[in-house]
Structures are given as structure tokens and as C-alpha cells.
Amino acid sequence: EILSVKNSETLLDPCYGFGSLAITVGQNSKVIYGQEINTETYGIGKLNNLIANKDNYIKMEDSLINCNNSADVVVCNSPFSIKAYNIEQHHLDYLKWGNPPVGNADYNFISLVLDKMKDRGAIIVSEGVLFRGGKEGEIRKNIIKDNFIDGIISLPGGVFKNTAIPTNILFFSKNKSNTDIFMLD
Questions:
Q1: Which pTM value belongs to this model?
Q2: What is the pLDDT of residues 80-91, one digit of tens each?
Q3: Which of 40, 61, 124, 169 could bridge across to 153 with cysteines, CB 3.0–4.6 Å?
């Protein structure tokens, strides 16, 4: 509801999974694009599209290496703290705010959401994304400097089925009229 996707807008989920996030957030969207790397999850996501009576474009592909779609709104519930790709091995042009450490892809997914959204987006992340320093701290500083963070909602552990750790939803906008960042704990 915060993103309030209109029927004239497109939606992208680069970590499509079962499709529940994209189908719920994009229920009014003109079209939903999705990418999923896991074969079994991809099949279930396609099936959920049929059940939801959605005519969407879902590809089985690694979005961190190849994500050609952009959309008005991008949503993502990426896997937490998976290993990032070696930047020398892959040309990752979505990393405009800095190169994340190879040991963690959280900021790869955040950068991908920011790069592929035309207007606004949201990503679910672990709590560490907000506090880690080093390369991730520099990327976070660059994103804040570009005024893309609209707000952060911090959630307690156990809210999502796939993890018991505290999580956060980061909301982004490319058309902010102020520099405020709302925060809800």
C-alpha cells in the first residue's frame, strides 16, 4: 500500500521467488516482470501467476548478472548475505554507488533495485545492511547523498517465514521533493 502501484505502471521483482511479493504489491500494475534463479522456485512462481490470473513476464535468470528489464516500481526480497560476484569477472553496470565487498551481495541487490526503478522501489534487508561500515558504509553514504532513501521500516525478528532475524524494509524514490527520511521502528 505504501508503494501504491497504479494500473498504468510496471513492476519488477529481480528475486521473484514464489511471486507472492510481486503479485501482492503489483496487483494493480499494468505488467509484472520477474527473474528467479532457482528452477523449483521459478516453477512455483509461474504456477502462482496462473492461480492469481496474472499475465506476467517471468524469466529464469540470475538478476545480479543479467537484468535487462526496468520498471516504474521495483520490489525485492533478496536472499540475505549471499556471496557477491567478483566485479572483475562480471561487468555489473548497476553498481553506480560503489563496489560492495565480494563476501556479501546485500548492496548488489540494493544497487540493482535503485538502478532498475524508474520512480520508486522497496527492498527487504537484514538489519546489518543499515550499520555495516567499510565499502557498504560508503555505498550507503552515496545513496543518501543522491537522496534516494524515502524511508525505513524496522521489523522485529520472526515477521518473515524464511528468517527469525530482525529485518528492515527500505523504501526508495527517485523523485523526492525533500531530503527527509521517515523511520518507523
A1: 0.93
A2: 878 776 566 677
A3: 169
